[in-house]
Structure formats: structure tokens, C-alpha cells
Amino acid sequence: MGRQAYRLAQAAVFLLISGSVASAVANQRKDPEQSEVSLVSNQIDARDDSAVGEMVVVMETMAEETVEEPAFWSEKDWNDEECYLLARIAMAEAENQDAETKKLVIKTVLNRVSSEKFPDNIHDVIFEKTGRTYQFSCIGNGRWDAVEPDETCRDVMEMVRLERQDNDSEGALYFEACRNEDNWHSRNLDFLYQSGDIRFYR
Fold first, then answer.
1. What is the 3-state secondary structure (H, E, C) of 83-121?
2. Mean local confidence (pLDDT), 88-117
3. Which pairs from 129-137 meet CB under 8 Å and 24+ separation?
4. What's the rounded Cα separation, in Å, for the pair 2 and 5?
């Protein structure tokens, strides 16, 4: 949003100066003896220098205040295989959940990619193993091999890819759907929210 506002401010400066030139030309037609160049210069100097200066200050302030989006969310240069993996993890972990929950599962994987605590690519995050235990239970219990992403999962993955930045996952790095809410996640992590039947943590 900051970059868009900056461009709008640039356009405003252009229109401000253009308006001055148009006004100067109109005045010159009324007084042919006055030099057009001199009249344009006087119009801009006398009436618009202050306004233009203020607009430039606003533009510079906007540029300084522009918040940079996290690199991972703005690049989204995933290849076809990575997109497939994201859609498939949504299917394997949240097949019976709504689209919003599927999206949050995908974003949890992406948050891990962005975190220094986990591998820096989608494949290795999904298949990460601690000792003999996979980070995502669907990889170890055979469910991953039994599913393929459906249309909803593919659509959700595309929605995430098109987002400019993450505004709803709150940095979730873990999730679970244990029947017993008193589990390792609830005892060792910060609970963030529940979506559908899945609870998310950081």
C-alpha cells in the first residue's frame, strides 16, 4: 500500500504542475505581450513552489514509512512441484476441513520455511524427521501416500500464492487435532487459535 500511495503522490505533483502550465498558457492568451516562458515560470514560482515542496516531503515520508513485506510472501517463486506439495499437505492434514483451515495448514508450512528453526524449502519442511518421527504425522502414518490434492486444495494453494503477504496465520508453526486437548503442543507451545477441528500454535 505504501508504494501505491507514493505513486499517487507523484501523479499529484505532476497534475499540480500541469495545472499551473495550463493556467499560465490561458493567461498568456489574454496578455500576448507577456512572454509565455516568463509567465509560466512566474505562475509556478509564485503559486506552486510551496505546494510542490510540501508534496515532495509527503512523498519522501511515504517512501520511508513503506513497510517491507516478508521476502517469502512477496516472492512466491514456487515451482510446480512445490505447489503440488503444498496442495497435497492440505489434503493429507485437513481433507475434512473447510478451505480456511486448509489455507492455514499451507501457511504453517510456509511459516516454517521462513523460520530459522526449520529447513528453508517446502520439500524439506514437509518431510523433516526428528529421530524416527516425522514432523507431520501424515508422512509417517501412510496417509500422505493415500491421497492426492482435490480441486479445493489446489484452489486454496493458488489463493495463498496470490496473496501479497500473510495476514491471518499469526506466524503459526505447529498444528494438531488431538482428541485430548491436553497434549504436547498445548503444554509446550503458545496456543494461537482454532480453525475447524485443528488448533494452531507457535
1. HHHHHHHHHHHHCCCCHHHHHHHHHHHHHHHHCCCCCCC
2. 97
3. 136/89, 136/92, 136/93
4. 5
Determine contact, residues 118/112, Cβ cutoff 8 Å.
yes
Residue 156's alpha-carbon distances to 54, 90, 194, in angstroms, are 45, 9, 18
Amino acid (one-letter) located at 176: E
Q: How far is CA 134 from CA 14, 124, 129, in A?
A: 58, 11, 4
Grid cell at residue 150? 482435490
**Looking at this protein, which amino acid is placed at residue 100?**
E
Non-local (6+) Cβ contacts of 114 within 8 A are: 70, 72
Which residues share a beta bridge with 193?
Answer: 200
- Residue at grid coordinates 509417517: 140
pLDDT: is 99 or 39 the higher one? Answer: 99
Q: Cα dihedral sign for 109, 114, 117, 120?
A: positive
DSSP bridge pairs for 194? 199
pTM of the model as a whole:
0.65
| 3-state secondary structure (DSSP) of residue 34 | coil
For residue 167, the model assigns a pLDDT of: 81
